[in-house]
Design goal:
This protein is α/β, with parallel strands linked by helices. The chain has four domains: 9-260, 5'-nuclease (Rossmann fold, 3-Layer(aba) Sandwich), CATH 3.40.50; 307-533, Nucleotidyltransferase, domain 5 (2-Layer Sandwich), CATH 3.30.420.10; 540-649, Taq DNA Polymerase, Chain T, domain 4 (Up-down Bundle); 712-839, 5' to 3' exonuclease, C-terminal subdomain (DNA polymerase, domain 1, Orthogonal Bundle), CATH 1.10.150.20. It is 48% helix and 11% strand. The protein is globular and about 95 Å long. This is DNA polymerase I.
Length: 926
């Protein structure tokens, strides 16, 4: 049927194709009841963005009704090889149709026909009625429909697909795409095509002969023997393939074009859908349109109704104008472009600003690249042949400094700590600040990553320009100062604008979701503390590291000789393949298991098991591996990571990585230095104090065990801590019925393993492995533990139940830690989620406590005349560099601050205690 329609522009959304793009493009998300909803979220976000951004007066969403269609009657192997949909996607199909209905959009599907056939039919009907048609999809099968009046839109890249793009893809125009596909076939849909002919060859043949039938009728003329034979032998397959790939344009559709008029969504219909699926960011964006209290700042986040206005600032007048605008607005998004991810070694190349709406600018400061046409990017006036026009860096920073330090103007950043370090090295102390990465982390920690690209997709439905698109990859990659200004402008300005919009979308959620305290009293103030710590760094003894590395090298050589002698031959010890073949084939050790690669598994757990059985060679290999890792990761690498200017190592702390709230350390990672071996402890001796100073190490004593007793309300353990008793001895006394006096150290060790195992949800199997006992004995120990300490069993059961119901757990300070796998159908993933849920409130509360201590520490030391500097945080430990004469007084201040870090928010029934150590090196202090 061909209805005339009063619409100017019809958008036909390929719902089936977009489902998979959304599913694989967005990280796993669960709604509160555990149902996966990442594809639903992406799909809903896309439809909202389409409605708001496009000038469409008619929209329809088209779905596949099932796998079978008329094509399976033509060729029974059509799509036969397609795997079943991923397990996490299956429950989302119905929800996606609910999303379409909630947005008040027509949802079209017909049994016996694919979505592409319905799209083709409606597209042709609309064109015949004089309408412009946009097919929202990147599916290559739909490219045959492109013609005057019908185009495609790739929603992920926001890129229009017209005849030129089709030719680039297939080497022919849209009218010959079907012929090329018929020859080349499609392995995904199991379209056979002609064996040995790909897209490139198919395009050449169609260009030469005009169409498929002409080619097949003249196939005998082709000079290449194999190609000629293939075409003659498979002519009928090519014809069948053409029928498979050609879209049907006359489907007897049951819904008229007249029913596709764009309609406003109904708040009472959309709101429950968003609430049930936990789409809080979408609810915040749509607050005013859902009939809730209008949020001016949220409207800023959704301000995408006009093209962004990006300005390249190359003179003082323009910069002064932007500074004035930021001061008047009272908030500005700030982002720096540099030559390195290492903030202590990077050079500042430029700064971007945004004041919201669609406005952003980029201020180049140290670019050296001109564009390909030699104009420096946009404006060479005042520049030179090999350097574009820029404001002198010193002058630009002089003008920006008052704004970036102005206490009345909020500076907004994405991972703003990096920018603060960069700008601090250039004489600017940025304050006050907000961080979109941390806002996301506080609101949705554990659900997904918190990088800008991911957040822009999740919360704004926007696909950002990727860094590699600007600087290149591999050997062709350049530093940002080599990027021409036109490319730099779009990338840098977008970063600032998206940051401003993310801030608008996320900050308003703190109050209704009760996350203000976690963000405002823990995460945000910690940014400035960490920025200063990273800049201070810690002194490293290069000669000591060099000597230690040489010592490790000699010991590795000796171990290598010993291992080769034991093996009776030389082999590459670091090769898992060669090691596996030696152990399980040549030496005949039983129990070897091959992985998918065909090689034997030789992980640490395998070798440890073999060593426990008395096999000497695996034990020596474990020693070799450990020493080799220490050498490469620490003694060698640390020498290269000593800053040539400061002579110190400057680690970088990440606040938004661990879901529990713990800080992560990188470049170098100083939190993973092994301390259980003598060799590992030696590495800490390489970190030393400056002359006339000592290193002070203060760490919490058994903080997580104390929190177990507190959170579980376990009176026996709380009393033991309150009385200052040995908690492991008390546990051994309670579980094993042995007296505390004269206790066997091995018994205490077993009790210690149980105490810490319980924190991490360890099973009887895991405890048996760690203690070297039978699984039955381990189960008996755990049962006895719970019998003596029933509060802990109660806590575990209650916490798991809460997590199953809500999808998250809470720390004592109110931090939400989401546990996505808690309601998984896969038993292993579900069990992992339950163990994580048990541990998270404990580890998360410990993380909150030391963060609070760090924030107060800066103020406490600042109120005295003490000159101590906080340098490092390693889990429950803080390291300071202290003048020798002030060690005792500083230690008292630090311990007081750490032991009272919960006050006045929490009144723990168990005292926190902190132990101090002092030394010339970190190893000596610890």
């Amino acid at each position: 049927m061909t209805d005339s329609a009063p619409y100017k522009h019809l958008y036909l959304v390929d719902g089936s194709g977009y489902i998979f793009r959304a599913f694989f493009g967005i990280p796993r998300m669960n709604r509160p009841d555990g149902t996966p909803v990442n594809a639903v979220f992406g799909f809903t976000n896309m439809l909202l963005k389409l409605r708001d951004d496009m000038e469409a007066d008619a929209i329809a969403v088209i779905f596949d009704a099932g796998r079978d269609s008329f094509r399976t009657e033509i060729y029974d192997q059509y799509k036969a090889q397609r795997p079943d949909a991923p397990e996490d996607l299956v429950p989302q199909f119905a929800l996606i149709r609910e999303a379409t209905e909630a947005l008040n959009l027509p949802s079209i599907e017909m049994r016996g026909y694919e979505a592409d056939d319905l799209i083709a039919t409606y597209a042709m009907q609309a064109k015949a009625a004089g309408m412009e048609v946009t097919i929202v999809s990147s599916d290559k099968d739909l490219m045959q429909l492109v013609q005057p009046g019908i185009s495609m839109l790739d929603p992920m890249k926001n890129k229009t697909i017209g005849p030129d793009e089709v030719f680039e893809k297939f080497g022919v125009g849209p009218d010959r795409v079907v012929d090329v596909q018929a020859l080349a076939g499609d392995s995904v849909d199991n379209v056979p095509g002609v064996p040995g002919i790909g897209i490139k060859t198919a395009a050449q043949l169609i260009q030469e002969y005009g169409d498929l039938e002409t080619l097949l009728s003249r196939a005998g003329e082709i000079k290449q023997n194999k190609r000629r034979e293939k075409l003659l032998e498979n002519a009928e397959l090519a014809r069948i393939s053409r029928r498979l790939v050609e879209l049907k344009q006359d489907v007897p559709v049951e819904v008229s074009l007249n029913e596709f008029a764009t309609r406003e969504f109904i708040p009472d219909q959309l709101r429950p859908f968003l609430e049930i699926n936990g789409f809080k960011s979408l609810m915040a964006r749509l607050a005013s349109r859902l009939g809730e209290a209008p949020m001016e700042v949220v409207n800023e986040a959704a301000a995408t109704d006009a093209a962004p206005g990006y300005e390249l600032v190359q003179d003082e007048a323009a910069l002064i104008r932007w500074i004035a605008e930021a001061k008047e607005k009272g908030s500005v998004a700030v982002d720096t472009e540099t030559t390195s991810l290492n903030a202590m070694q990077a050079n500042l190349v430029g700064i971007s600003l945004s004041t919201g709406g669609n406005r952003a600018c980029y201020i180049p400061l140290d670019h050296t690249a001109v564009s390909e046409d030699g104009d420096g990017g946009l404006d060479l006036m005042g520049g030179s042949a090999d350097r574009p026009k820029q404001i002198a860096k010193a002058r630009a920073l002089e003008l920006l400094k008052p704004l970036l330090e102005d206490p009345s103007v909020l500076k907004i950043g994405q991972n703003i700590k990096y920018d603060m370090v960069i700008l601090s090295r250039n004489g600017i102390e940025v304050a006050p600040i907000d961080d979109t990465m941390l806002l996301s982390y506080v609101l949705e920690g554990g659900l997904h990553g918190h990088g800008m690209d991911e957040l822009a997709e999740l919360h704004l439905g926007h696909s950002t320009i990727k860094f590699k698109e600007v600087v290149g990859t591999g050997k062709s990659q350049v530093t940002f100062d080599k990027v021409p200004l036109d490319k730099a402008l779009d990338y840098a300005a977008e970063d600032a604008l998206i940051t401003y919009r993310l801030h608008a979308a996320l900050k308003t959620r703190l109050v209704p979701e009760k996350m203000v305290s976690v963000y405002e009293t823990i995460e945000r103030p910690l940014v400035e503390v960490l920025s200063r710590m990273e800049q201070r760094g810690i002194k490293a003894d290069r000669p000591f590291l060099h000597r230690l590395s040489n010592d490790f090298a000699q010991r590795l050589a000796a171990l290598e000789s010993e291992i080769h002698e034991m093996a009776g031959e030389r082999f590459t010890i670091g090769s898992p393949k060669q090691l596996g073949e030696l152990l399980f084939e040549k030496m005949g050790i039983p129990g070897g298991k091959k992985g998918k690669s065909g090689s034997y598994a030789t992980g640490a757990d395998i070798l440890e098991g073999l060593a426990a059985e008395g096999h000497a060679l695996p034990a020596r290999v474990l020693d070799w591996r450990q020493l080799a890792k220490l050498k490469s990761t620490y003694t060698d690498a640390l020498q290269e990571q000593i800053n040539p200017v400061t002579g110190r190592v400057h680690t970088s702390y990440a606040q938004a990585v661990a879901s529990t709230g713990r800080l992560s350390s990188s470049d170098p990672n100083l939190q993973n230095i092994p301390v259980r071996t003598e060799e590992g402890r030696k590495i800490r001796d390489a970190f030393i104090a400056e002359e006339g100073h000592k290193l002070l190490s203060v760490d919490y004593s058994q903080v997580e065990l104390r929190l177990v007793a507190e959170i579980a309300r376990e009176d026996a353990l709380r009393q033991a801590f309150a009385d200052g008793q040995d908690i492991h001895a008390i546990t051994a006394h309670q579980v094993f019925n042995v007296p505390i006096e004269g206790m066997d150290p091995m018994v205490r060790r077993q009790a210690k393993a149980i105490n810490f195992g319980i924190i991490y949800g360890q099973s009887a199997f895991g405890l048996a492995a760690s203690l070297g006992i039978s699984r039955k004995d381990a189960k008996d120990y755990i049962d006895a533990y719970f019998a003596r300490f029933p509060g802990i069993q109660r806590y575990m059961d209650e916490t798991k139940a809460f997590a199953h119901k809500h999808g998250y757990v809470k720390t004592l300070f109110g931090r939400h830690i989401h546990v996505p796998s808690i309601n998984e159908k896969n038993p292993m993933r579900k069990n992992f989620g339950e163990r994580a849920a048990i541990n998270a409130p404990i580890q998360g509360t410990a993380a909150d406590i030391i963060k609070r201590a760090m924030i107060r520490m800066e103020a406490a030391l600042g109120q005295t005349d003490l000159k101590a500097k906080m340098l490092l945080q390693v889990h429950d430990e803080l390291i300071f560099e202290v003048p020798e004469a002030e060690v005792e007084e500083t230690s008292a201040v630090v311990r007081r601050v750490m032991e009272t870090a919960c006050d006045p928010v929490l009144q723990l029934s168990i005292p926190l205690t902190a132990d101090a150590g002092v030394g010339r090196s970190w190893g000596e202090a610890h």
